[in-house]
Design goal:
This protein is α+β, with helices and mostly antiparallel strands. It has helices at residues 28-33, 44-51, 55-64, 80-90, and strands at residues 9-13, 24-25, 41-43, 69-72, 75-79. Helices cover 37% and strands 20% of the residues. Strands 2-1-4-5-3 form a 5-stranded antiparallel beta sheet.
Length: 95
């Protein structure tokens, strides 16, 4: 629970420090508008289990910009569509 006057931030994309246009104060109305709530989101653990990659390999892919993530507070999520696009890019589009 946030204290009164505190702000949570929603980051969509790679490194939020370099992706300023997607960073901003969190609001559920903005989250609804961006369609995040209607999309299936995977936790890092779910993504790693589904695609059988290590923790280090996951964050290497994020840092390289080949895998997009969503940051909600301290939680990191991956949209299912972004996960499928990442897999397709690895297999040359055969996924």
């Amino acid at each position: 629970m946030l204290k009164k006057g505190a702000h949570a931030y929603l980051f969509i994309g790679g490194n939020p420090a370099f992706d300023n246009e997607t960073a901003g104060p969190f609001s559920f109305s903005k989250l609804k508008e961006s369609n995040c709530m209607s999309q299936e989101l995977l936790t890092v653990a779910q993504f790693k289990e589904r695609y059988q990659i290590s923790h280090t390999a996951f964050y290497r892919q994020v840092k390289a910009g080949t895998l997009r993530t969503i940051k909600i507070g301290a939680s990191t999520r991956v949209r299912l569509a972004d996960a499928q696009a990442w897999l397709a890019s690895l297999s040359g589009g055969a996924a």
